[in-house]
Amino acid sequence: MHVEGFRFDLASVFTRKSDGSISLDDPPIFGQIAADPELADIRLIAEPWDASGSFQLGSRFPGLLWMQWNSVFRDGVQRFVRGDAGIVPELMTRIYGSSDLFPDDRLNALRPFQSVNYLSCHDGFTMADLVSFNKKANLANGEDNRDGLDDLSWNCGWEGNGNVPADVAALRVQQVKNFVLLLMLSNGTPMFRMGDEFMQTQNGNNNPFNQDNETSWLNWALLDKHSDVYRFSKRVIAFRKQHPSISRSVFWRDDAHWYGPDHAPDLSHKSRQIAWCLHGNLLNDEDIYVMVNAGAQSIVFGIHEGAVGDWLLVADTSPPSPQDVFAADEQFAVKQAFYYVMPRSVVLLRRCLPNRVRN
Catalytic residues, which ones? Predict the structure, then answer.
């Protein structure tokens, strides 16, 4: 059947013994799967919780070669993009590859690609609904189905999809682009929910498991309505594929230099800004420079590496399409040693050095 692998729902149930208690001491099912010649080399992906409250993620999960849905990445990035204070250190850890959860120390041999980074899935709000609803709307057929997840959403100042003011609609598009860009610039394995690339909505229902209607059907008309988000998503995904230094089999370590608007990163509770430069020299790749402003005011970021004119603008989530993302032959140099990063936006630059030009 050419099945490449399996994703196990509620996979932490594997750590439960027959009496329901939890044992993390080498549950036999992992060894049995690894020893089966038909299963040994396929991709195995685990959801980190089970139906009774167990939560085994990263080094706590006994399947040490398995990939795992990283809901901690989801929560941290959702909070940051929403504008929560005190999230900068958390965001740095998630962007870096969640080394706290997937350590490669002496006791573990985990790798960042085992972290399946995602911001939306079949459980919870779609990306569009994350920026459109503060409350769940799970009413169906007269029955109030309120057992969905508690999403870290923010409606951008207007609840729901009806009669949305133009400025709110524009901000929602910008926030979705922020989600897409941060996901694709993070070390780990990105997972993308189908339809998010054109702002699929479930109209606030974050748990439509019992819906076989317009709530859960994919609305292809939104592809035309939000062709700008589709275009942005395609180009950002292509950029990631063209830059192997972003997603590595190991952590970035000294190749990542962290900054703030000023030279040192601001890790204080009030900070909502972070920047980093990722060097690609070990993989014959280009350097990239990222500036993130989750605050409500524009911020002047210094560009703290390279000379003036070294950096080309790849993406800025604040302007409307087509000025939000540029193909390689459209990119232009930033002519100063700083950049005005607009409120609630992410900026991506690349530095193409002569001895590291990729075909």
Answer: 9, 47
